[in-house]
Amino acid sequence: MLRSLRLAIGAFVVALTLAFSAGTANAAVWSSTDRWGTWTSGSYTLYNNVWGSGYGPQTIWANSTSNWGVWANHPNTGGIKAYPNATRYIGRAVGSLGTVTSSFNVTVPTSGVAFTTAYDIWSSDNAHEIMLWMNYYGAVGPLGTLQTTATVGGHTWKIYRGSNGSNNVYSFVRTSNTSSGSVNVAAIAQWIRSAGWFGNVTIGNVQFGYEITSSSGGKDFVTNSFSVSG
């Protein structure tokens, strides 16, 4: 009986040690619970960015700038609470933008939430904001009024135009949700310029993340892969 007990205890200790070692090996290289937590690696910066009112706890983590995510527990109330995102700066005018593309793959909750997986692309002076809604769930909607439906940048969108009082906003809402794909960012910026909505502006930050209104009880939003090329 004593020998069996010692063997059982030994096996438990080995299993616990292996589990701990595996957890340590798979731990994120960076994480933060700070509202404004940031991490820069190479040409990308990750932001926790809990900026709205009435927010709950949110933790951002990263294995790399292309593989990161958040756990968010924001109450089921109106108003955007956070936009955790990965950002890369471009710094070229639309007329000489050349090729700028981005690809993404995400795993997101689809019930009990209100959010959109979205790109947020800014002119360098922050006067113009281009939002690309790749998927959305719950009680959320774009700013402005519907202008048209068009296929541009590799996707078909309902396109809205408006202002938030600080900058012009152009919201491209994909006509069906997707959790992965690629987007021709340059083509979208050139389409807006050809529509006469802005001139030869300089494209600044290309951001990708989750604009979260509610995620009561705690939800995981995972970026399996993300990159901006060009």
Point out poorly predicted stretches. 1-25
Radius of gyration, Cα only, in angstroms? 21 Å
Work out the strand percent. Answer: over 45%
Structural class given helices, strands, pairing?
A: mainly beta
Describe the structure.
- The protein is mainly beta and 230 residues long.
- Helix content is 15%, strand content 48%.
- It contains 2 helices and 15 strands.
- The chain has a 9-stranded mixed beta sheet, with helices on one face. Strands 1-4-5-15-7-13 form a 6-stranded antiparallel beta sheet.
- Residues 1-25 have low confidence and may be disordered.
Any descriptors?
single chain, 230 residues, six-stranded antiparallel sheet, 48% strand
Question: Topology, please?
Answer:
Blueprint (H helix, E strand, L loop, with lengths): L1 H24 L4 E3 L5 E4 L2 E4 L10 E5 L5 E5 L12 E9 L7 E7 L6 E10 L4 E10 L7 E8 L2 E9 L4 E7 L5 E5 H10 L7 E13 L4 E11 L1
Parallel strand pairs: 9-12
Antiparallel strand pairs: 1-4, 2-3, 3-6, 4-5, 5-15, 6-14, 7-13, 7-15, 8-9, 8-14, 10-11, 11-12
Summarize the entry for a quick read.
With 230 residues, the chain is mainly beta. The chain contains 2 helices and 15 strands.
